[in-house]
C-alpha cells in the first residue's frame, strides 16, 4: 500500500549504552552485536520471570536500535545461545538464516566481566528469536523465507496465553502482515488475522486486539473494501487504547472510511487528530494524514491555511495538494483540470484521485460564488464562459448549476428565465448573521474536546478516589508531622 509508513514505538538512541543500562551493568567498550543480543535476552528473561511487560517492551525497542547492525553470523550465534540445540525452533530458524561462506561465528571482543546465561525453555525467548529472524529476513529482502518464518511463529503463538508474550506477539502480527503486503498476498491471510483477533479477544490481549484490528482495516482498505472495513470496525469490541501508534493508525483508517462514506466532518476530525498525535519522527505517516485532511477540508468548502503546506519536511510532498487548493480557491475549472492531469500519478499513488473528481463541483460552486459577488446581473452565457464549461449545451448546464447553488444556499441570487440572467442580491453584513457565532462555537467545542482528552490521558494512583482524607484527618496528620519535626530538631540540638 503506498502510504505504508513504519512507526516505531520510540526512536531509541545508541543501543550500546541503553542495553547495558537495561540490565544494570556498566557499559563495556566496543561491545559486539552478539553481546548486545545476549543482554537483550537477559532483559526478556528478567521480564518473563518477574512478569513485567515493560521490560519486554524495552527489549523490543533496543532490538530496533540494533536492526541495521544485524548480520547472519550474529543471528546464528544468538540462536545457538538462546535456544536448546535439540528444539524444533532452533532447527527451523537455523535453516532460514543464510550461511556466510568464508566467515566464522562472531566472537565477543569485549570480554565482559561476567558471562551471560539464560534459562532455556522460556516462551518469551523463543518468540523473540522468531521476531529477530523475521526482521533480519525482511531487511535482506528474503520474502519467501520471511513468510515461512512468520507463518511458523503465528502457529506457535496460537498455543500460548501469556501476557508477557503480548508485546512480542503484536510485533510479529505487524511483520506477518507486512511481508504479505510486500508480496501482494494480503488477501490470503485475512482469515488468519480474523482468527487471531478472535483469539486475542478471548485472551483479553488488548494490545493484540488493537494491532490486529488495524491490520484487518488495512487489509480491507488495500482492496477498497470500505463497507466490510466499517462493519468490522463497528462490531469490534471496545477497549482503551494502550499504544499511541496503534491509536493513530486507527484514527487514520477511520478517517479514510468516513471520507469515502461522505461523512466529511467526522473524517476531518479523525485525520487531524491522527496527524496531531503521531510522533514527530513518523513523517511519512503525518504526510499521508495531511494529504487526506486537505482533500476533506476542500470537500467541506474550507480552504486550508498556507502553514499546512509549509510544515517542516512536508513541503515537497504537499506541493501537488497546494496547487490543487489554489485551483479550488480561485474557482478556475481549467486550472483545476490541468493540476489534476499534471499530478495524476501522485494522486493515484495516494489513492485520492476519486476524491479529487468530487472536487469538480466545489470548484464550480466557488467560481459561481465569486461571480455572484462581482456582478449584480450577468447572463447565463457569460457564466458558462467564465466557468469554462465544456459541455454540449453550456447555457443549460449553467442554469442548472445556478439553480442548485441557489437552492443549497451557496449564493444569494435569483434566476430570470425570460431574459436568461442571474440577478445577485446585495451582500449584507456578515456580522448580522449567525456565521460568526457558528464559527466561534466550533472553536470552543474543539478546545473543550482537547481538554477532555487531556484529562482522560492523565494517570492517577490506583484507588486514589477511595482514599480521600477528610479535613480532620488532614489536620491530625499535619500536627503529627510538626511534632515529629520538632522532636527531631530537639534531638539534633542535644547531639550538638
TrEMBL record:
Residues 461-496 are annotated as: Disordered. Pfam families: PCI, Rpn3_C, TPR_PSMD3_N. Residues 248-429 form the PCI domain. GO terms for cellular component: proteasome complex. Transmembrane segments: none annotated. SMART domains: PAM, PINT. InterPro entries: CSN3, PCI_dom, PSMD3_C, TPR_PSMD3_N, WH_DNA-bd_sf. Residues 464-489 have a biased composition (Basic and acidic residues). Acts as a regulatory subunit of the 26 proteasome which is involved in the ATP-dependent degradation of ubiquitinated proteins. This is PCI domain-containing protein. It comes from Urochloa decumbens.
Amino acid at each position: 500500500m503506498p502510504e505504508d509508513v513504519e512507526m516505531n514505538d520510540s526512536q531509541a538512541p545508541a543501543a550500546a549504552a541503553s542495553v547495558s543500562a537495561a540490565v544494570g551493568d556498566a557499559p563495556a567498550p566496543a561491545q559486539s552485536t552478539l553481546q548486545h543480543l545476549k543482554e537483550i535476552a537477559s532483559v526478556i528473561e528478567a521480564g518473563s520471570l518477574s512478569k513485567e511487560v515493560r521490560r519486554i517492551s524495552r527489549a523490543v525497542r533496543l532490538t530496533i536500535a540494533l536492526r541495521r547492525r544485524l548480520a547472519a553470523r550474529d543471528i546464528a550465534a544468538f540462536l545457538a545461545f538462546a535456544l536448546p540445540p535439540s528444539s524444533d525452533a532452533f532447527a527451523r530458524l537455523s535453516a532460514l538464516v543464510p550461511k556466510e561462506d568464508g566467515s566464522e561465528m562472531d566472537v565477543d571482543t569485549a570480554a565482559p566481566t561476567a558471562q551471560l546465561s539464560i534459562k532455556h525453555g522460556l516462551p518469551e525467548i523463543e518468540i523473540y528469536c522468531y521476531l529477530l529472524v523475521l526482521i533480519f529476513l525482511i531487511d535482506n529482502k528474503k520474502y519467501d523465507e520471511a513468510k515461512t518464518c512468520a507463518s511458523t511463529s503465528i502457529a506457535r503463538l496460537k498455543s500460548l496465553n501469556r501476557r508477557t508474550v503480548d508485546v512480542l506477539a503484536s510485533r510479529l502480527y505487524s511483520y506477518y502482515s507486512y511481508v504479505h503486503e510486500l508480496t501482494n498476498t494480503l488477501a490470503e491471510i485475512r482469515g488468519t488475522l480474523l482468527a487471531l483477533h478472535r483469539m486475542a479477544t478471548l485472551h483479553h490481549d488488548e494490545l493484540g486486539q488493537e494491532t490486529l484490528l488495524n491490520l484487518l482495516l488495512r487489509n480491507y482498505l488495500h482492496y477498497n473494501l470500505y463497507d466490510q472495513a466499517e462493519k468490522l470496525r463497528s462490531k469490534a469490541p471496545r477497549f482503551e487504547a494502550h499504544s499511541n501508534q496503534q491509536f493513530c493508525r486507527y484514527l487514520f483508517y477511520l478517517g479514510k472510511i468516513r471520507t469515502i462514506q461522505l461523512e466529511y466532518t467526522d473524517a476531518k476530525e479523525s485525520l487531524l487528530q491522527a496527524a496531531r498525535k503521531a510522533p514527530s519522527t513518523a513523517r511519512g505517516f503525518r504526510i499521508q494524514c495531511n494529504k487526506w485532511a486537505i482533500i476533506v477540508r476542500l470537500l467541506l468548502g474550507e480552504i486550508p491555511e498556507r502553514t499546512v503546506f509549509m510544515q517542516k519536511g512536508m513541503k515537497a510532498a504537499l506541493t501537488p495538494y497546494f496547487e490543487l487548493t489554489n485551483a479550488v480557491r480561485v474557482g478556475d475549472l481549467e486550472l483545476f483540470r490541468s493540476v489534476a492531469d499534471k499530478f495524476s500519478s501522485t494522486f493515484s499513488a495516494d489513492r485520492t484521485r476519486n476524491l479529487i473528481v468530487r472536487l469538480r463541483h466545489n470548484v464550480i460552486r466557488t467560481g459561481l460564488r465569486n461571480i455572484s459577488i462581482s456582478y449584480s446581473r450577468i447572463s447565463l452565457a457569460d457564466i458558462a464562459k467564465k466557468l469554462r464549461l465544456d459541455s454540449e449545451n453550456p447555457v443549460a448546464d449553467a442554469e442548472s448549476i445556478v439553480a442548485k447553488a441557489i437552492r443549497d444556499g451557496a449564493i444569494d441570487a435569483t434566476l430570470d428565465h425570460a431574459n436568461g440572467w442571474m440577478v445577485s442580491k446585495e451582500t449584507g453584513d456578515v456580522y448580522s448573521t449567525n456565521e460568526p457565532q457558528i464559527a466561534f462555537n466550533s472553536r470552543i467545542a474543539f478546545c473543550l474536546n482537547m481538554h477532555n482528552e487531556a484529562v482522560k490521558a492523565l494517570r492517577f494512583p490506583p484507588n486514589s478516589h477511595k482514599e480521600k482524607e477528610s479535613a480532620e484527618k488532614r489536620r491530625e496528620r499535619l500536627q503529627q508531622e510538626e511534632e515529629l519535626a520538632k522532636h527531631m530538631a530537639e534531638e539534633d540540638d542535644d547531639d550538638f
